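Task: sequence design from structure.
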């Protein structure tokens, strides 16, 4: 039976076109293979532990990471396309919400609509078991990568699968380490692990802050999983080697830039500090001035708040009064 699914994975119904898709995807749409690869990664992380695939943020986020790995920058698309269309390959059954008919709602283009129409989807039970088994899962992964992607990017995608799993483990480890104060802990300084570190740190911080900017409080998350916040280090990684949540904050792009430039910081009472320099010359700092002295948004769990030692470093070494 594995042979049957290897065959099905090698003959997915995908859109083709030399003008629509690049050579790295063999001029075929990579959406369905990316969705199946993302499902495999979530299964191996334990985030999918039963045969029910929800259109969750974790799934969309992983799908976006695969997409960005090899597709040209600036090309945008949505996981909504494969989520509804995988049905045509025989092993994917969508579960509609009451009042919706999966058959008439076939060509869905937005994740908003997907979540409105479907609870999720189920795989053939037998296929799901093959995906839960590490050996057969890797055979199915190879079938996808070798069929839909050109040689030069195959190793990149295999590598990305490993990074996804290690980054997830790393983010869990960071959460566990959060309570341990002091300078005894440092992440391994191995350049080849930078991708794992970056991705794991981002995942931990963005999750802890629930996509909300610690300084200005803004939260904007698109249905396709694009978020306005980034994971920022309080003491930069290159000198602290500290990825624990106590050395991080989720910040929107404007606040991240202002924090790194020393135009904003966080005080002893977790209040926002705004440098006088934001008002020099022709600057128009706008709403940034209204943030002065306001409490920052911190995680519910106090043990995950930025450590005052790290904030003190930022106030002394980076903040421009
Ligand atoms: Zn902000």
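Answer:
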């Amino acid at each position: 039976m594995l042979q049957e699914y290897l065959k099905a994975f090698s003959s997915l119904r995908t859109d083709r076109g030399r003008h629509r898709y690049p050579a790295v995807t063999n001029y075929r749409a990579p959406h369905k293979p990316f969705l199946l690869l993302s499902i495999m990664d979530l299964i191996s992380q334990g985030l999918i532990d039963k045969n029910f695939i929800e259109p969750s943020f974790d799934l969309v986020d992983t799908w976006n990471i695969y997409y960005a790995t090899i597709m040209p920058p600036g090309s945008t698309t949505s996981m909504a396309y494969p989520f509804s269309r995988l049905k045509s390959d025989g092993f994917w059954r969508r579960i509609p919400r009451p009042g919706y008919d999966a058959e008439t709602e076939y060509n869905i283009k937005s994740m908003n609509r997907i979540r409105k129409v479907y609870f999720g989807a189920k795989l053939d039970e037998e296929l799901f078991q093959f995906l839960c088994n590490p050996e057969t899962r890797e055979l199915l992964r190879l079938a996808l990568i070798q069929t839909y992607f050109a040689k030069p990017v195959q190793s990149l995608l295999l590598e990305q699968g490993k990074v996804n799993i290690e980054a997830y483990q790393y983010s869990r480890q960071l959460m566990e380490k959060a309570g341990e104060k002091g300078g005894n802990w440092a992440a391994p300084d191995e350049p080849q692990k930078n991708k794992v570190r970056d991705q794991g740190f981002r995942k931990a911080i963005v999750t802890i802050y629930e996509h909300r900017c610690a300084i200005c409080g803004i939260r904007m998350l698109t249905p396709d999983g694009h978020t306005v916040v980034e994971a920022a280090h309080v003491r930069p990684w290159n000198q602290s080697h500290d990825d624990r949540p106590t050395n991080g904050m989720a910040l929107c792009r404007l606040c991240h830039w202002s924090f790194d430039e020393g135009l904003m910081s966080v005080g002893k009472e977790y209040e926002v500090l705004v440098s006088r320099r934001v008002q020099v010359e022709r600057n128009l700092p706008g709403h940034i001035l209204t943030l002065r002295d306001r409490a920052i948004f911190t995680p519910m769990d106090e043990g995950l708040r930025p450590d005052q030692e790290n904030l003190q470093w930022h106030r002394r070494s980076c903040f421009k009064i």
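The two ends are 68 Å apart (CA to CA).
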